[in-house]
């Protein structure tokens, strides 16, 4: 595993008030996780925080920049759900903390959404058991034909 650069170490120090943040080298950058959920990353020397439909408007209103991934294969760039923190929060742990918490919450919601469909199917299966067929009616035994005995 590559050694952490000074910018990654500095960012990790800024995030100390958040709690036990883990880092992991990935795809040429660094991923930041909290509680087993990835909430941030450093790519090309820039720090990004995870957003979702609830948090994205706040990041956009603060003038944050979205991470756009250019795959270089002639395909259009892909906008990822990660934004830089606001400029005033980039070097101040107290200012960064609320933005990092939003990112952690977005990561938790994303994980909950992934779990929900399979759990919903299981719950539905438990609530609505398969319909059982009614037992087949027993037929009355056929009446035996009496054969007339001829008397001689």
UniProtKB/TrEMBL annotation:
Signal peptide: none annotated. PANTHER family: PROTEIN SXY (PTHR36121:SF1). Residues 107-152 are annotated as: Disordered. This is TfoX N-terminal domain-containing protein. It comes from Hyalangium minutum. InterPro entries: TfoX-like (IPR047525), TfoX_N (IPR007076). The lineage of its organism: Bacteria, Pseudomonadati, Myxococcota, Myxococcia, Myxococcales. Residues 13-107 form the TfoX N-terminal domain. Residues 111-125, 134-152 have a biased composition (Basic residues).
């Amino acid at each position: 595993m590559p050694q952490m650069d000074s910018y990654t170490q500095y960012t990790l120090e800024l995030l100390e008030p958040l709690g036990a943040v883990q880092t992991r080298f990935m795809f040429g950058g660094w991923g930041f996780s909290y509680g087993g959920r990835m909430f941030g990353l450093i790519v090309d020397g820039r720090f990004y925080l995870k957003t979702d439909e609830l948090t994205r408007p706040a990041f956009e209103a603060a003038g944050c920049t979205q991470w756009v991934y250019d795959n270089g294969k002639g395909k259009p760039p892909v906008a990822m759900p990660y934004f830089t923190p606001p400029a005033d929060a980039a070097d101040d742990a107290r200012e960064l903390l609320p933005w990092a918490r939003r990112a952690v919450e977005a990561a938790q919601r994303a994980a909950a959404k992934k779990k929900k469909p399979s759990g919903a199917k299981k719950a539905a299966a438990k609530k609505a058991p398969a319909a059982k067929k009614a037992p087949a009616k027993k037929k009355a035994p056929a009446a035996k034909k009496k054969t007339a005995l001829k008397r001689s």
